[in-house]
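Schema walkthrough. Field components (list of strings):
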Amino acid sequence: FGKVKSVKFDWTKGESIELDSVENALAEGAKAITLVHNDTSVGIKNPAKEIGDLAKKYGAIFIMDGVTTIGGDEVLVDKWGVDIAVVGSQKCIGAPPGLSAISVSKKAWESMVDKPPYYIDLKAYKKSANKETAQTPYTPAVSLFFAMQEALRIVKEEGLEARIKRHAQFSEALRAAADAMNIEMFPQLNNYSKYSNTVTAMKIPTGIDDKKLRNGIKELGIQVSGGQGALEGKIFRIGSMGNISKLDILSTVQAVEIVLHKNDVVKKMGPGVEAASNVLK
Amino acid sequence: FGKVKSVKFDWTKGESIELDSVENALAEGAKAITLVHNDTSVGIKNPAKEIGDLAKKYGAIFIMDGVTTIGGDEVLVDKWGVDIAVVGSQKCIGAPPGLSAISVSKKAWESMVDKPPYYIDLKAYKKSANKETAQTPYTPAVSLFFAMQEALRIVKEEGLEARIKRHAQFSEALRAAADAMNIEMFPQLNNYSKYSNTVTAMKIPTGIDDKKLRNGIKELGIQVSGGQGALEGKIFRIGSMGNISKLDILSTVQAVEIVLHKNDVVKKMGPGVEAASNVLK
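Field assembly_structure (string):
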């Protein structure tokens, strides 16, 4: 639907987005900007508010993938000027996978073309949603709608603010544990980017390899992710989103510590779990 | 991805597809032909085999929507030369809605362009399916996959042949009942089209209107569909797909008969249910 201008940064080094490059692209005439709010592949939370301010300044449409933040981290769609925000059912909301939900600003509605491709025909959805009994234009995944409804009730029960605080605390605990075990964080933060509050990406420590580390953890009943693509074998990632508990975080740290100790990467057991506990108490 | 040539026939009259018109379009250079095998909006089963023969003769790709036949009616994909067949989870297979499955012929794979739109990038699915552990390229609706697996086990338990026979018998019973109640079938069959084996479309009988008929049936606990678009108020449709029983068919006929009798459209109760019973016994 138009030319795509890519603003490049070296994700394989965990580099953060530079706002200047984004502003340059907008000054050169970019009409829309897309952002992954929380980049799970590198464990970075990108500066959505600042990007939104730039989009507003240049009159561009701001489309934000909030798949791994909405429901688990602060996302102020209207305040940040996000024109289209997208969320998936299976991440921070804790419903089964299979559904997406989006929010659409007035500006985004107005900028839509008249005959969009079938799968992104939002107007068809709007038309059906506005019927006397709100509907979808085609048969939806009904069972997942009910599951999503229940998941949202659980979110409401916990309280969105409390839930966001919990997610922030859990990832802080993971970072504290990593620090205590001398595991380096992967992201290279700048003034605007932050560590992800839902996925913690760390370098594989010297003295062990990816397979040994992750298989060892898996044998203890916990699954952590490896790096994707160019990062395979270089980093490992711990997800901490959804309906999980303090004990889930502590037992994950414990598992990492056990494997690192068994492989003589850390000299003694305890500091990781202790550091995480201090954050969680 | 090319110009679309429509072969027209008046669906609001329940007209069947004319094979000559289809052949003309192919002779004029149509490269692909799409067919809804079972047209639920009018209750017609279209001649897939014959269309497949024409597609083969002219070297066109034959794409068939088998959403309301696969799992409930005979569909011989390879024998009929269907290059791409599509099925939905929620119709004859009896799983929850939300999934599609397709079959793709060698010819269809070879005719695919290199950079298809995101949502129809079948090559991405093929690549993932061919991995050591078969996967999908993106997170799928996992819970629906398990539901589909269970639904397919139920299909297997009944036996596909028995299941097809049951569907044929159920719709035959509905047609016999309609005949006994002097309700006219809606489709105008020709030499090739057939009455649908999964949805029976009938004209609203004289002496009652759509609302009175369908609301009356609904009050008895059974939901039947009305006509869509231009057919609203003119026809009503009884679906008979999936894991339903003889009793479901008989009680539906009973409900129709009760409402027609109450509104003096039929003089006596009984003939509809009796005719259906005779087919089902």
